[in-house]
Design goal:
Layout lengths: L8 E6 L9 E6 L3 H4 L4 E6 L6 E2 L10 E6 L3 H12 L4 E4 L2 H8 L2
Antiparallel strand pairs: 1-5, 2-4, 2-6, 3-5
Length: 105
């Protein structure tokens, strides 16, 4: 199968630290319109439900979504995806269990 396009692409997974999400209990999740309006972004999705707890990243399952962006260079595509991921609208509230997990070490 021949490629139809040849353009650098980058994916940024939406996670808690080192990603853009705060840990805690999810209180609200907004739409992705602002994310999709960013330059080069052509796909984004989240897997977040109100009431669930977002924990620090430890496993692949801790990925809560993604943003895919394209650009003229790979570094610019990554910058675009990372910038857009910061706009994923999720509000969390501190959770005692999460705070204990974060302080263990």
């Amino acid at each position: 199968m021949a490629a139809r396009f040849q353009q650098p692409l980058a994916i940024k997974f939406v996670t808690a630290e080192p990603g853009p999400l705060s840990t805690g209990v999810v209180r609200s999740v907004g739409g992705l319109a602002a994310v999709m309006e960013q330059p080069g972004v052509f796909q984004a999705d989240t897997y977040i439900e109100i009431g669930e707890t977002i924990r620090p990243v430890a496993l692949d399952i801790d990925r809560r979504g993604y943003v895919i962006a394209v650009a003229a260079t790979a570094s610019e595509a990554l910058r675009r995806a990372e910038s857009a991921a910061l706009l994923v609208p999720v509000e969390t509230e501190a959770d005692e269990r999460t705070q204990r997990t974060q302080t263990r070490g």
